[in-house]
Amino acid sequence: MDSMPHLQQPTMSVVQRSSALKERVEFYRKKGQRIAFVPTMGGLHKGHLSLVKHAKVTADVVIASIFVNPKQFGPTEDFDSYPRDHTTDVAMFEEEGCHVVYIPEVEEIYPPDFKTVIQVPALDGVLCGASRPQFFTGIATVLARLFLQVNPDVTFFGEKDYQQLLIVKQLVKDLGLPITVEGCPIIREQDGLAMSSRNKYLSEEERAMAPALYQEMQKAVQEMTSGKKIESVLQVSKKRLKDLGFDIDYFEVREIASLALVEKDITQTSRLFAAAMLGNTRLIDNIEVSLKS
Ligand code: AMP
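A: This is the predicted complex of the input protein with adenosine monophosphate.
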């Protein structure tokens, strides 16, 4: 008979209903605890877990969510095949020290008569938004819903999705939500490939080729900061990637706050943004372009 009191940490709660989530949040609030929120679509890797690590530093309680948001996928995109392994994901969140994982059904986020869309047009028409018109409206809408349901003090997003991070910051500011939005650095595989749930789609051959994107980005940044013309550097990089089998969506330098295109001189810290298809897998990445010293 086990008469010893259990000494280990209380186990993480997994909740599916917003009402159950609300109860947990009220419990923490009554205790005066600071709540961090890490939204994800699952298919977890060390990039996601790094957000939880950052969250744990500044908050008492970490709530993560797993929701593959139908509104951010186009009709020909990978909504159906997107990695869904809740058992593994929940175990990974628990191992990392999350307190609650919210895994809502679609109706919990979008009831049948849901009609609202949220848009941040000043930032969503370029880069990923140009080729995926529904994408950021879907993201802004789901995050507004999740923020209101979770009611966190602080939320963590990866710079891997840099445009998304800017859009979330703007949305939170414009709606006056009392939430601090924190960006976290990109976590990479040892060979430089930015971690992504979609990397699972890559064939062995494509996986071996994939780091070439980041390598080319590093090369381009080095050349631009050493004084070479942006336009010609980008052109050469794009050609080289094309020759390796990448189908490039964009490969361009933009300002870090407005996302305005930087075509001539780098007069302020900017970022090189890239998106490309490798076979059927969309890879995205970005990297800082610092001012010449
Ligand atoms: P996702 O599940 O793809 O919607 O991503 C959930 C969160 O994890 C977003 O804030 C992403 O920016 C972040 N994230 C995804 N991949 C990485 C990575 N390689 N490094 C850092 N953060 C990441």
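The beta strands are 13-15, 35-40, 61-66, 100-102, 154-158, 180-184, 246-255, 270-278, 281-289. The longest strand covers residues 246-255.
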